[in-house]
């Protein structure tokens, strides 16, 4: 019985400690999806997100008119889809961001990339959002306010896990 309680306590503690590092799921273009209809400025859309290793991008689109091609930076800048890194044609494709750096996606249908159906995803290392290398600017100060809101929730998660571990580890009821 004590082993079961200790295992449960450790499990809850680990979940609480890891709770702040949950991966996020992003729908490319939000509710508009992956489209060339000019409804989404994908550059602006990506600039307003903080992508991290483990996050997932979901591309929702009509696969009769669109696709998703992961390309090099050169392919992205020139809208050249002839030698893609990967091609997605499902209409509801998920891409897990497995490392930090840039991921470049374009639509391979003629004219769509040139019309703006392309996205540059910049994945930052996990530590970069807690210790900026450059002095804060006005734009980074606004994103820092969202970081300060998540710190109390991480501490609360940790405290709850520690308290739960204490109670489950043999504390007499």
TrEMBL record:
Entry keyword Transcription regulation: no
UniProt key word Electron transport: yes
Phytocyanin domain segment(s): 24-125
GO molecular function ontology, one term from the record: metal ion binding
GO cellular component term, pick one: plasma membrane
Transmembrane residue ranges: 149-171
Signal sequence coordinates: 1-23
Keyword terms of this UniProt record: Copper, Electron transport, Glycoprotein, Membrane, Metal-binding, Signal, Transmembrane, Transmembrane helix, Transport
Database matches in Pfam families: Cu_bind_like
Domain of life assignment: Eukaryota
Entry protein name: Phytocyanin domain-containing protein
């Amino acid at each position: 019985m004590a082993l079961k309680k200790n295992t449960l306590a450790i499990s809850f503690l680990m979940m609480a400690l890891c709770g702040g590092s949950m991966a996020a799921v992003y729908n490319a273009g939000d509710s508009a999806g992956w489209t060339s209809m000019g409804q989404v400025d994908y550059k602006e859309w990506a600039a307003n997100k903080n992508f991290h290793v483990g996050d997932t991008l979901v591309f929702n689109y009509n696969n009769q008119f669109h696709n998703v091609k992961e390309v090099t930076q050169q392919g992205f800048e020139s809208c050249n889809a002839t030698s893609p890194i990967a091609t997605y044609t499902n209409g509801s494709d998920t891409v897990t961001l497995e490392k930090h750096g840039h991921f470049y996606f374009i639509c391979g249908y003629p004219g769509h990339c040139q019309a703006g159906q392309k996205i540059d995803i910049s994945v930052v290392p996990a530590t970069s959002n807690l210790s900026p290398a450059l002095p804060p600017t006005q734009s980074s100060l606004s994103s820092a306010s969202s970081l300060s809101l998540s710190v109390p929730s991480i501490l609360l998660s940790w405290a709850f896990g520690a308290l739960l571990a204490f109670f489950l580890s043999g504390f007499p009821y």
